[in-house]
Amino acid sequence: MNLKCGAASLVIGMQYGDEGKGKLVDVLAEEADLVCRVQGGNNAGHTIWVDGKKIITQLMPSGILQKNCRVAIGAGVVIDPFVLLAEIKKIQALGYEVSPERLHIDCRASVILPYHKLLDQKRELERSKNSEKIGTTGKGVGPAYASRAYREAPRMAEISNPTQFKNWLDAQPHLKEGLDAQVLNEFFEVAAELLPYIKDVAVIANNCLSQGGKLLLEGAQGAMLDVSFGTYPFVTSSNLISGSCAGGLGIPPWKVTKIIGVIKAYSTRVGNGPYPAELSDPLASELRTRGNEFGSVTGRPRSVGWLDLVALRYLSIINGMTGLAIMKADVLAGFDRVGMITAYKDKRTNKNREDYPMTIQDWENVEPIVEFVEGWSYVMKENKVHKNYVQFLKKIENFIGVPSIYISAGAERSAGLWL
Question: Of residues 26, 33, 46, 308, which has the active-site annotation?
Answer without folding.
Answer: 46
